[in-house]
Amino acid sequence: MDEAMDKVRELEGEIVEPKSIISNIGHIVGCKDNEGNSFGLVGVTEK
Which domain of life is it from (predicted)? Predict the structure, then answer.
């Protein structure tokens, strides 16, 4: 997840919602690309 967040910043995007825990699933992060399009990153925790 941290590598993907770094890549968003490297490509001039921004993190608009910090990494949050989703119980029993993993993490989610809200982002915007350099054109203002919103998207999310989801990291699933392996069990």
Answer: Bacteria
Burial degree of 29 (CB within 10 A; 0-12, 13-18, 19+): buried
Which amino acid would we find at residue 37? N
pTM of this prediction exceeds 0.85: no
Domain that holds residue 33: 2-44
The total of structural domains in the chain comes to 1
The token pair at 11 is 């490509």
The residue among 21, 28, 22 whose CA lies nearest residue 43 is: 28
CATH number at residue 17: 3.10.180.10
